[in-house]
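Support request from a user on the community tier.

User writes: "When I paste my structure tokens into the form, the page sometimes reloads and wipes my input. The last time it worked, I copied everything first. Here is what I submitted, just in case something in the input itself triggers the reload:"
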């Protein structure tokens, strides 16, 4: 709700800076252009932490990583035309993975559209109609500050996501009424009346936690509930790290085979909290439920892929606390110790059978437990998605919104900026690394100590797997790659190439300090993905 206070005037560029200060926005991601220079001057004079990258598609992934790691909105400033167009993929990812982004488009003058002006594009925000929560167009000086606050609040309110606001560059040098406006978030409610009757006589409930359950207060509540009541806890990919995955009741990602599949098949009801249960995240991965309680922040995904006996939408925190009141003191029939023993035996077998499993377990054992791990789509990352144990919240990021493959390096940069006290490791494939490699210059310029692990099998590995298994064609997805270590060293970044898992372990334990950037090139043959296990 908008609270209006006293009216004053300032130049448009100064009003934008005032908005940043008032909302504690100190880090922005930007690639300058002729239209943005007046604002650039003001931001430089103000001393804001403006990260200038080499391509807008990388910058929006930096903002995405920043938002996931910090819990704040990532702020991206783009110039019109090609600058705005280059962020489309990142916007798709953020929209489909609930990542809050404030995208400020430094716009041309709309009155001049049709004259062939520089970067001319009619109604550019319409490009983003279906991949943002909302778009805003500022056409008058009086709209600037209210629109900024409205856009910022929209990005951060449930369900979080990206917002585009177009601001004509001509407003920078015009007087703008600055109302000192502020917005309060409306408190969500939720009604779980009736859930108790659904749970009555149930002996084996399972909880699946999704990304919207990723808040600090959730961990101790779930720890107490699942331990005392003997309830297995599973997560989606976005929910990895809600609770420590080495806890007695935690069994990792719901898409796993083996023990996790047995748990789901043996359960008599699934309680899904804060997850959309999208087709690509669950149903396509073989996740099945007998009976379902589905609780989420809104109704958008309710009953889309799984029919639920009971549904509720609104405050996840209030729903969780209400659930505790209903379940606490109940004794369920799960033998969590036996299930953990099954899991350990299963993992010991996987370690011997599957190089992908051994690789990610070696990485886990060789890095600090609080490390933020940022993946894109590649064979090691798929194994990590399934089986990499996560011990802290907001410490495992994988782009599962639109599933872009050029995500890991720029998002890792943003994640390290967003949470500088935590070590950060980017896991990327050779196909995903090369288009983003220019951002090594950004790493050096701003002294960002992110560690990059590049898995190089000289191919689009998973596509090679499909081409051979399904179509009988070999070597059709091969890649010609550079020497990644030499590229890193040309920027002044230390690096090392290894060809065995044991050598990789040595590099992590002996060469990496986590206080400076480092690049590891892991040259290793392609191995089967986890869903073939």
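"...and here is what came back when it finally went through:"
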């Amino acid at each position: 709700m908008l609270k209006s206070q006293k009216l004053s005037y300032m130049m448009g560029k100064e009003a934008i800076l005032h908005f940043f200060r008032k909302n504690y926005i100190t880090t922005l991601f930007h690639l300058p252009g002729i239209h943005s220079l007046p604002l650039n001057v003001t931001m430089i004079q103000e001393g804001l932490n403006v990260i200038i990258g080499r391509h807008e598609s990388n910058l929006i992934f930096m903002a995405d990583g920043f938002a996931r790691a910090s819990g704040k909105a990532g702020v991206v400033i783009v110039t019109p035309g090609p600058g705005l167009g280059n962020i489309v993929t990142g916007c798709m990812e953020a929209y489909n993975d609930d990542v809050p982004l404030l995208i400020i488009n430094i716009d041309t003058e709309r009155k001049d559209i049709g004259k062939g002006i520089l970067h001319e594009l009619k109604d550019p925000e319409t490009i983003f109609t279906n991949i943002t929560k909302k778009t805003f167009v500022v056409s008058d000086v009086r709209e600037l500050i209210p629109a900024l606050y409205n856009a910022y609040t929209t990005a951060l309110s449930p369900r979080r996501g990206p917002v585009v606001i177009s601001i004509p560059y001509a407003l920078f040098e015009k007087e703008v009424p600055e109302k000192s406006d502020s917005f309060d978030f409306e408190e969500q409610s939720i009604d779980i009346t009736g859930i108790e009757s659904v749970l009555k006589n149930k002996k084996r409930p399972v909880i699946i936690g999704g990304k919207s359950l990723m808040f600090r207060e959730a961990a101790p509540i779930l720890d107490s509930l699942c331990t005392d009541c003997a309830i297995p806890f599973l997560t989606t990919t976005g929910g990895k790290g809600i609770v420590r995955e080495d806890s007695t009741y935690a069994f990792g990602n719901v898409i796993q085979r083996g023990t996790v599949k047995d748990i789901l098949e043996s359960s008599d009801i699934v309680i899904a909290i804060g997850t959309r249960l999208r087709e690509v995240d669950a149903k396509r991965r073989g996740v099945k439920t007998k009976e379902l309680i589905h609780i989420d922040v809104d109704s958008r995904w309710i009953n889309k892929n799984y029919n639920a006996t009971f549904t509720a939408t609104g405050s996840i925190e209030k729903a969780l606390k209400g659930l505790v009141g209903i379940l606490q003191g109940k004794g369920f029939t799960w033998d969590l110790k036996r299930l953990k023993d099954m899991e350990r035996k299963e993992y010991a077998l996987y370690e011997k059978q599957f190089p992908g499993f051994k690789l990610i377990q070696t990485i886990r054992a060789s890095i600090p437990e609080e490390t933020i791990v940022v993946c894109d789509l590649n064979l090691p990352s798929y194994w990590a998605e399934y089986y990499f144990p996560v011990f802290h919240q907001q410490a495992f990021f994988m782009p599962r919104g639109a599933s872009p493959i050029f995500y890991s390096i720029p998002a890792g940069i943003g994640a390290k900026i967003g949470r500088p006290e935590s070590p950060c490791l980017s896991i990327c494939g050779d196909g995903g690394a090369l288009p983003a490699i220019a951002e090594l210059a950004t790493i050096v310029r701003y002294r960002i100590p992110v560690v990059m692990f590049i898995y190089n099998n000289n191919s689009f590995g998973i596509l090679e797997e499909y081409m051979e298994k399904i179509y009988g064609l070999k070597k059709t997805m091969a890649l010609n790659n550079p020497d990644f270590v030499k590229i890193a060293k040309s920027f002044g970044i230390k690096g090392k190439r290894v060809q065995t898992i044991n050598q990789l372990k040595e590099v992590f334990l002996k060469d990496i300090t986590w206080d400076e950037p480092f690049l590891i090139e892991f040259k290793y043959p392609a191995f089967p993905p986890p869903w073939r296990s």
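Agent notes: The reload is a front-end session timeout and is unrelated to the input. The radius of gyration is 24 Å. The chain has a mean pLDDT of 93. Escalated to web team.
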